[in-house]
Amino acid sequence: KSLRVLILGDGETLNEEGEIVSLEEEDADSDEELVECKLMGVLGSMGESHTMKVEGKIQNVDVFVLIDSGASHNFISPKVTTALGLAITPTAARNIKLGDGHKVLTKGMCEGVKMKVGELEVVVDAFVLELGGMDMVLGVSWLSTLGKVVMDWKAMTMQFLSKNQEVKLQGLGNKIIKQGYLNSYLEDTYRGEELGLWWAQLQSMDTAESIISKDFSCILNQFPDVFRDHIQLP
């Protein structure tokens, strides 16, 4: 018997046929998809000038929306789809490259999401993706349907024509995010459940201590001479 050792260089791996291939070549087929779905500004770069936060409503529920010219597609949080019962169409998982370089996988597609931003009615298809504290991201796939758009990044406004009517969206700027948004509500509900559990445990402990105290009182009453308080030196 002989021992064979195969030494691979940096960035090399073995394919199914046992051939040495470069990782860059192996990933070449997916690079186009990564670039196509590159999502900038969702995590870690919300202060960039190409993003604007706005308030929206889905099924009359307040949602926190990020308009992001660096995102090629639209995205929606799985917490929102679950809470509102939105149908998710299964799709092949797609790699999404975030602004900080991390890659995450989509969890299907939510088609025909109806949302109101001010007086504007928006209907979009959105990939289901974990979005941190946001409910939805509107990217270039939506922005490209608006035609000419006038952005004022200083005033955080966005103007365009929709159905021959001028629409002006006002961004939230640096406003503190209110707790009425769906994701915030869900997080508060989760924290409330934790608090309720903690309170239930605390009450159980109090009850146990109360039972012990009653038992101990019976013993004290049975042997008063033994447990009598000493108020002077023996």
Automatic annotation (TrEMBL):
Organism, scientific name: Trifolium medium
CDD domains according to UniProt: retropepsin_like
Coiled coil: none
Family annotation (InterPro entries): Peptidase_aspartic_dom_sf
One matching Pfam family: RVP_2
Protein's name according to its UniProt entry: Enzymatic polyprotein
